[in-house]
Design brief:
Blueprint (H helix, E strand, L loop, with lengths): L1 H14 L5 E2 L21 H25 L3 E7 L12 E8 L8 E9 L6 E7 H4 L6 E8 L3 H4 L6 H4 L21 H13 L6 H10 L5 E4 L2 H10 L10 H5 L2 E4 L2 H11 L6 E4 L24 E3 L3
Antiparallel strand pairs: 1-5, 2-3, 2-6, 3-4, 4-5, 6-9, 7-8, 9-10
Length: 308
């Protein structure tokens, strides 16, 4: 029991290093994105693994910043298993270096849109890496895509009003990208990217036109009529009335996925090729007379290109 209390205390102290700020609304209720709404009670071991990923990703971001000058990127997580739909990552946000954080020592922050679990409303949050990866992950891996023109983008990510310019609180996990009143988390990212890159973009309609003009192509998720009916009847955060009738009746649901965003940014040269960041194995302290080494699982890599 004492060991469990000590671990809980250590987790709490580590979490306190990463502050949360809600840009649009201060909320104390838990929020989810890229995950299902199944009630869960995470174990201390699971929480520790979430934090291990956060610490590993922070270290790798620091290395990329020192080596390649990384300042701004898109960061993805895996909140649930979507492999049946050919998808790996579930949720996307902006990650940037906050040089003023921690008394000038600096820290990596994530700005992203979170849906209040089971509801049709969402807000924008600014969080530390521990919180971003602390919502309960299906797989402990992050996707990273460095953005071009980071020097121009970085200061804009601290402007709360600008980040909220095209934010729509009405949430739909499968929102149609080109019309309709709803907005999902990944959709907010690319619409906000349009705002950050073009000062003439001041509305969702203009952001959508900007994305179309630069060749963004949403992913198509095949859903049967029974699946659509069940989702609409029993979940508040899924709607289909914004999708074109013909496509909807064919079971072809077009929406914004992490993979479609990564492919578009790479294809257009707006971003670098994506990478997968994983938990680093612990360093083994060398015995006297023996070289120091760290165990690396076969086939594993802490910084590698994301799966196509």
């Amino acid at each position: 029991m004492d060991a469990r209390r000590r671990l809980r205390s250590q987790l709490c102290r580590r979490l306190c290093l990463w502050g949360t700020a809600v840009l649009v609304l201060c909320a104390l209720l838990p929020a989810w994105a890229g995950q299902d709404c199944t009630p869960r009670r995470p174990t201390l071991a699971a929480m520790a693994r979430d934090l291990d990923l956060a610490v590993s990703v922070a270290a790798q971001l620091d290395e990329l910043a020192a080596r390649d000058g990384l300042r701004v990127a898109l960061l993805a997580r895996i909140g649930q298993d979507l492999s049946a739909y050919g998808l790996r990552y579930t949720h996307l946000g902006f990650v940037y270096r906050d040089t003023a954080a921690l008394d000038g020592r600096g820290a990596w922050r994530v700005v992203h849109k979170l849906n209040q679990c089971g509801s049709d409303r969402a807000q924008i949050y600014r969080q530390g890496l521990a919180e971003f990866f602390g919502d309960g992950l299906f797989r402990h891996e992050a996707g990273l895509l460095p953005l071009k023109d980071a020097d121009a983008l970085a200061p804009l990510l601290t402007d709360n009003a600008l980040l909220a310019l095209v934010h729509e609180p009405r949430y739909n996990m499968l929102a149609y990208p080109w019309a309709g009143p709803y907005q999902q988390s990944n959709q907010w990212v690319i619409e906000t990217l349009a705002v950050l890159r073009d000062p003439h973009v001041n509305s969702r309609a203009e952001a959508r036109a900007w994305l179309r003009g630069r060749g963004y192509q949403p992913a198509t998720v095949p859903l049967s009529a029974a699946t659509r009916l069940g989702a609409r009847m029993f979940t508040a955060h899924i709607s289909f009335d914004d999708h074109p009738f013909g496509r909807r009746m064919e079971g072809q649901i077009d929406t914004v996925t992490v993979e479609s965003v990564f492919a578009w940014l790479t294809r257009t040269g707006l971003g670098e090729p994506p990478m997968a960041l994983r938990i680093r194995p612990p360093t083994v302290r060398a015995r006297p007379g023996r070289p120091e080494r760290a165990p690396v699982p076969a086939g594993a890599s802490t910084i590698s290109r994301a799966p196509a």
